[in-house]
Write a structure and sequence with these properties.
222 residues; binds magnesium ion; 17% strand; binds adenosine-5'-triphosphate; 8 strands
Length: 222
């Protein structure tokens, strides 16, 4: 069976943190493919200024050029209205006709907001998650501990989730497992990059060169 990871985000812009995380998850979970899914109007970022989808998509395409097993789809951008993960998951599962094992990949900062997502229970019924431990995380105060994750899961998602014996995932009698991916990852965020560009810093260390060239030529984040 094919194994595919869905990796959604604003990707404003894509950076080496996203790319490294995707590579490591792909290897660890033996995925055939990771699909990057840039969101249209991010439901959690409404009100803040988000770069046009066409530019975010173009930068993703540049970043993934020449890579193997990494793809980008514009399915959320083409869908009218805000992008809800539950709709995207349904779309992929319907197209897979049960022939692909799908995973939903997300950083723990995104995961800690999952209880606010539209129909989050439906998502947990349908697709296993891979939660990436992300340095800095939601408060930029260091990585979240497993026990803090557990409190979040059992308080906000479902009290029936239990850590597996080997400590790699939370299991549930009815819902799909939540896998924890503990690798140390790069402390980079798109916010840092946007701020860096605005204050005239080079972002060469944080994004692929082609992405840097694109965002300079387009005058993004100025
Ligand atoms: P912003 O600062 O604008 O929120 P971001 O860097 O968090 O940008 P997003 O597009 O919000 O990027 O994130 C998409 C997904 O990638 C989320 O699930 C997020 O948790 C994850 N992610 C972002 N940066 C990293 C990183 N450095 N390591 C691992 N995962 C990351
Ligand atoms: Mg983010």
């Amino acid at each position: 069976m094919n194994r595919v990871g869905l990796f959604g985000g604003t990707f404003d812009p894509i950076h080496r943190g996203h790319l490294t995380a995707a590579k490591k998850v792909k290897k660890a979970f033996m995925l055939d493919e990771v699909v990057f899914i840039p969101s249209a109007v991010p439901p959690h970022k409404e009100g803040s200024r988000v770069t046009p989808a066409a530019d975010r998509l173009a930068m993703l395409r540049l970043a993934l050029t020449g890579t193997n097993g990494f793809k980008v789809t514009d399915c959320e951008i083409r869908r009218p209205g805000p992008s809800y993960t539950v709709d995207t998951v349904r779309f992929f599962l319907e197209n897979a006709h049960g022939k692909t094992q799908m995973y939903l990949i997300l950083g723990h900062d995104a995961f800690l907001e999952m209880h606010t997502w539209k129909s989050f229970e439906k998502i947990l019924e349908q697709i296993p998650l891979i939660v990436i431990r992300r340095p800095g995380g939601i408060s930029h105060s260091g990585s979240i501990s497993v026990s803090a994750l557990e409190v979040f899961i059992t308080t906000n998602l479902s009290c029936d989730y239990r850590l597996s014996e080997d400590g790699t995932r939370y299991q549930h009698p009815r819902l799909k497992p939540i896998h924890l991916f503990q690798n140390t990852l790069l402390k980079i965020s798109s916010t840092d990059i946007r701020k860096g560009v605005q204050s005239g810093k080079s972002v060469r260390a944080w994004v692929p060169e082609t992405v840097e060239t694109y965002l300079i030529e387009k005058g993004l984040y100025r």
